[in-house]
Amino acid sequence: MKFASYWHDTSIPFTGGIVEPVSGDFEVAVIGAGFTGLNAARTLAQSGVKVALLEAEHVGYGASGRNGGHLNSGHFASFGAARQHLGDDRARRLWRAYDDSIDMIERIIEEEKIACDFRRGGKLKLASKPSHVGKLQAMSEEIRREVDPSAEWLTREDLRKEVISDAFHGGILYPKSAMMHMGRYANGMAEAARRHGAAIWERNPVTAREPLPNGWRLTTPTGSLTARQVILATDAYTPSPFNYFRRRLVPIASFIIATRPLTPQEAAATIPGHRNFTNSLNISNYFRLTPDNRMLFGGRARFSAVSNQKTDVSSGQLLRRQMVGMFPQLADVEIDYCWGGLVGCTQDRYPRAGNAEGVIYSMGYSGHGAQLSTFMGSALADMAMGRKDANPLEGFAWPAVPMHTGNPWFLPVVGAYYRMKDLVG
């Protein structure tokens, strides 16, 4: 078993980064080479803006290369809950942004000729308990009425064509949702950004920032550059020079396992629907088949802000037990990959974007960033170029998390609370 991201291990690494020390004067510097930063840099470079992209590790290293491979329409909450929290206009604008981002990803893949196994497979949100059915049915009806007429409710009998398990009692089908190979997309986006003129430095974390009369100086271990504007696209991996954001983000580890490739018969006997799947628990699981027919199965196996081989091993063992509990037919199937990564969560789980501390930012995707981040990268680029009404998250207040200084000491307590809710709910 490899303790590495399947997406990283099965894609050709980007090799177009600059090997010389960081230097130069730029109109915009983008920090973070995940989907947000990559599309911001690509969009700016396409528009003729002199742009630099700084990445602490390698392209797609963080959440963009460590996620479940889902591109799901809509957001995590019911539309009614979002409307109550955000107001009708903002809730609708956010919902549209998720849908528009999948459309944008599809266009970019076609325009830039990125081979990343993109497919509109749809998503099923599955009721894990009989008591969850009524709530999900009501959510399905509300979504159809208010924002997405294509959504539909599938009964337990309907699910037999989609997922071969006794663990589920119905589900909401979101047909617009899609999937792709995340590592190939990230590396393809980096190559596109470089081709359009972006200067990309990997393995150059920003260790300091200094305000200048006409912008910023950003320092890395190999050198420094200056830029009139800075875009921060680091989410859960935000470095210490940007503590304003760290106090508003809670990094939570998420873990994933991937089996050996399943035979066509094994795949058909497990999830013949070949969609994205999530369940309805508070500490939920998500799963899908990879392009080479592996079962990729993930979840918040532990509430921690740490992902390393020790935590990945124990979390992988728990995820395997959960997977086999849902799919006993996979009990003898080997696990080939096990990895973890950090998710940047806000207190209310809604993302944030705007201007603060002298930088333009988008982050706090709270586990639903694979689709939205590409769209927000384009929005940040538009903001940097002075275009109005580019930000679908405009006006979302973002207070600091009480008693949080960047080290989320309270996560075990939060995890225990949600596990109890799942037990009694």
Key attributes of the depicted protein:
FAD/NAD-bd_sf, FAD-dependent oxidoreductase, alpha/beta, single chain, 8-stranded mixed beta sheet, 23% strand, FAD/NAD(P)-binding domain, oxidoreductase, 425 residues, oxidoreductase activity, FAD-dep_OxRdtase
Plain-language structure description:
Residues 28-383 form the FAD dependent oxidoreductase domain. One of its GO terms (molecular function) is oxidoreductase activity. This is FAD-dependent oxidoreductase. Keywords: Oxidoreductase. α2 packs parallel to α7 (182-196) and α3 (79-86) packs across α4 (88-112). The strands form 3 sheets. Strands 1, 2, 8, 9, 10, 11, 17 and 18 form an 8-stranded mixed sheet that branches. Strands 5-6-4-13-14-15-12-16 form an 8-stranded mixed sheet, with helices on both faces. It has a two-stranded antiparallel ribbon with strand order 3-7. It is globular. Helix content is 33%, strand content 23%. By secondary structure, it is an alpha/beta fold. It has a single domain (6-112, 122-412), classed as FAD/NAD(P)-binding domain (3-Layer(bba) Sandwich). β10 and β11 (223-232) form a beta hairpin. The protein has 12 helices and 18 strands.
